[in-house]
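Lab notebook, bench 4. Still working through the backlog of constructs that have no structural model yet. Next entry is a single chain of 204 residues. Request: give me the structure tokens for it.
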Amino acid sequence: MQIALVIIWIFISLSIVQICVWSTDGWEKQKNRFLQFPAGRTPPAQADTRVQFHQDQFRFLVVHETQLAIYEASKLECLKQWFPRDSAAPISHATFSCDSQLIIASFLDATICVFSASNLRLRCRINPSAYLSANVSSNVQPLVIAAHPHEPNQFAVGLSDGIVHVFEPLESEGKWGVPPPIENGSASNMVATSVGASSDEVQR
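Model written out:
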């Protein structure tokens, strides 16, 4: 059975995001889950929500301006979640690398972060000053990230001024940051970390 993922906005007193799984055989809804938000945080009204399947086709990435999350598709079980700090800029876009081992995310303050997809551990943070010249307007924001189709560590970022920057790690390093340690225990344990809080982070 093939499935299709649908994102639904429900307007009550707040904007609530609902993720639905539909069977493409008869287009019947199989399951649905509400996107989970941190306690005490009010979801922003009408923020974009995107989904992208992992290479294994069993998991998918949910991108919302307040979080990154990995879900198991058939059960709609949230396996991992990552929330920026309250003071951090909203997430503007995120995508898997071509091998689904990394997740690259951009933020509205032009920061770019590279995560390990297996556990959403932060591996590297690229500061705006590393790729934006001093005379670029502070209003310029990254809008979209495109992963290279064959090189897992290479990606492009499209900015709101029409400029596209291509990123890859230093030749001497060959990869982004330090791979996080292998986790013990169940893979269903949820992880919540913050930008700048990981010991695995490498700044540029």
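Notes after review: Confidence is low (pLDDT under 50) at residues 8-14, 184-202. The longest strand covers residues 3-11. Flag for follow-up if needed.
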